[in-house]
Amino acid sequence: MRKLFRLRWAVVALIALATLWASRRINSRLPERPYLTIDATLAAPPQVSAIVSQHCADCHSEATRWPWYAHVPPASWLLERDVARAKRILNFSQPLLGQRDAAASVAVLSAICKAARSGGMPPRRYRLLHPNSALGAGDRAWLCGWTQATIPSLQKIAAAEARSKSGKATR
């Protein structure tokens, strides 16, 4: 009986210590900088920017809105890991177009449309906790329409970049 009592207190103490241990906030929100807003970096119509802000920004930008359970370990650890991973893949707070080479921008835009069409984004476990985050058919159409309209001009730029690189290499 006494061992069980000690074990319970040990568990309570561990939970308290874990809770007191401040979360690193790997992706703590950056100070507001107008040139890092989604609207400034996305170069997209307002409808697309609104979709990205509503459905993607929590994980794929510096504008993460942390839910209450993001402050409670071990949920906070899982959330931080997931958001950091998402931002490594795609961060809408970084310029999507113009700062990368055109071929990389084409690949990013293609991946955005593919993820939207397949229903892979937002992930299922995120949608379970945030039921309003699922992309509707109209949202998918806007995202894919924008990406498909932007890709041809980027492909022309990519081809020109490739020609200029090959011209420099032969000189």
Structure write-up:
- The protein is an all-alpha fold and 171 residues long.
- It has one domain (25-170).
- The chain has eight helices and no strands.
- Helix 6 (102-118) packs antiparallel against helix 8 (137-170).
- The chain is elongated.
Number of domains: 1
Q: What series of H and E elements makes up the topology? A: HHHHHHHH
Strand content: under 5%
Which class do the helix and strand fractions yield?
A: mainly alpha
Radius of gyration, CA atoms, in whole angstroms? 21 Å
Major beta-sheet overview: none
Gross geometry: elongated
| Mean of all residue-level pLDDT scores | 79
Give the oligomeric state. Answer: single chain
Count of DSSP-assigned helices: 8
Number of strands: 0
Task: Identify low-pLDDT runs.
Answer: none
> For the terminal residues, how far apart are their CA atoms?
84 Å
- Percent of residues in helices: 55-70%
